[in-house]
Amino acid sequence: MQAAIENENEMLLQVDDLKVDYQMEGAVGRAVDGVSFALRKGECIGLVGESGSGKSTIAKAILKLLPSNGALAGGRVILKGRDISHFTEEEMDAIRWAEISLVPQSAMNALNPVQRISSQMVETFLAHQAKADSRKTLLDKCQQLFEMVGLSRNRIFDYPHQFSGGMRQRATIAMAIALEPSVVIADEPTTALDVIMQAQIINLLKSLSEDKGVSIILITHDISIVAQICQRVGVMYAGRLVESGDILKVFNNPFHPYTMGLKAAFPTIKELKKTLISIPGSPPLLTKRLEGCCFSDRCPFSIEQCQRVIPHTVTIREDHYVACHRIEYAERFRKEIIDIFGTRVRGQS
Ligand SMILES: Nc1ncnc2c1ncn2[C@@H]1O[C@H](COP(=O)(O)OP(=O)(O)OP(=O)(O)O)[C@@H](O)[C@H]1O
Ligand SMILES: [Mg+2]
């Protein structure tokens, strides 16, 4: 993800050294700390990491939708060669939905509960380029979008509360693609859905990227979903991107101990009987100023340097980047990682 930024021509969206702070009672917390990645045309990238690692904050920062106590503390967001991080609210209004749209973490929040979905969708069109079309034409367009996401045309006249969680998620996706944006950011689009619904949403996102050429940033804590859709992945920990690159390279041969732990925490179809682990310890407090590696307190390979010096991101091989002082050590022990983390869990209990 990192080096991809070098080739500006094929890049649609670049996030460059992004930093986001939240003002908290009497302190400032850094939720995103120097994150860089790039998204190519028609590509699907995943952002994974445990709860609180800063994934949604990145999505909000890209679209300038941070809450009032949140602010960009550094970095740039470049869309088709334009730095949009300093755009005014009016300029961002022209970009949201039309060029980048967000399927927010809770689909219910994206829909107005007291308005029929049909009116909400038509208004989204009217707020942008479709003023010349009649309401009937627009409604028809919206119904086509409903069909595209697997919802029946007539359900468009429902209120959001008449929909199931999966249906709301689909309606939100239909709204997100209404103006044919080049980028869709889907924040936990399958959380709280049953496995059948999950599979349907995954297929929908897949066809958006493969058939319609939409570029997708898929945010989730579930690496198995990322593995099904994305070509590249960024692994977030405590506001930093600790490992990134080609999905197969990152997941088949992870170099960062956190990625190894994350992988060992998930079951796979091939290894149904494998022992699953949880990574002992918890992430650092947001307000703690980190001198060294953000994972050093939980890392079984941590040495004094890890506590003191922030590791640079290095290129392991083509399209595989890692920020870790202990790459060689971690590689040697990749196979034993479950035992190593497991011993630490037992040691703490
Ligand atoms: N409005 C806010 N004010 C203060 N802190 C916040 C605010 N929103 C988020 N945070 C903090 O910022 C950090 C990153 O939050 P964020 O929602 O981006 O995480 P996430 O990776 O999306 O987590 P999840 O997987 O649970 O959705 C967390 O420590 C969170 O508590
Ligand atoms: Mg989130």
Describe this structure in words.
There is one protein chain. This protein has 349 residues and is an alpha/beta fold. It has one domain: P-loop containing nucleotide triphosphate hydrolases (Rossmann fold, 3-Layer(aba) Sandwich). The chain is built from 13 helices and twelve strands. It has helices at 55-62, 89-95, 107-110, 117-126, 135-148, 165-177, 195-212, 223-229, 247-252, 257-264, 304-308, 327-332, 337-348, and strands spanning 11-24, 27-40, 44-48, 70-79, 82-83, 100-103, 183-187, 215-220, 232-237, 240-246, 313-317, 320-323. Strand 7, helix 7 (195-212) and strand 8 (215-220) form a beta-alpha-beta unit. It starts with 10 loop residues before the first strand and ends with a helix. Residues 345-349 have low confidence and may be disordered. Bound molecules: adenosine-5'-triphosphate and magnesium ion. Adenosine-5'-triphosphate binds at residues 22, 24, 29, 31, 49, 51-57, 67, 69-70, 105, 221, 286. Adenosine-5'-triphosphate (ATP) is lined by residues 22, 24, 29, 31, 49, 51-57, 67, 69-70, 105, 221, 286.
How are the strands ordered across the major sheet?
6-7-8-3-9-10-12-11
- CA-CA gap between termini: 38 Å
Contiguous helical run count: 13
Structural class: alpha/beta
Q: Which ions, cofactors or small ligands are bound in this entry? A: adenosine-5'-triphosphate, magnesium ion
Q: Which fold name fills CATH's third level, the topology? A: Rossmann fold
Q: For the CA atoms, what is the radius of gyration?
A: 21 Å
Strand content: 15-25%
CATH superfamily: P-loop containing nucleotide triphosphate hydrolases
Q: Kindly state the number of beta strands.
A: 12
- Average pLDDT for all residues: 87
**Helical content (DSSP H or I, runs of 4+):** 25-40%
Uncertain segments are: 345-349
- So what's the CATH class? Alpha Beta
- CATH architecture designation: 3-Layer(aba) Sandwich
- Whole-number total of structural domains: 1
The shape is globular
Element pattern in H and E? EEEHEEHEHHHHEHEHEEHHHEEHH
Give a quick account of the main beta sheet: strands, pairing sense, barrel closure.
8 strands, mixed
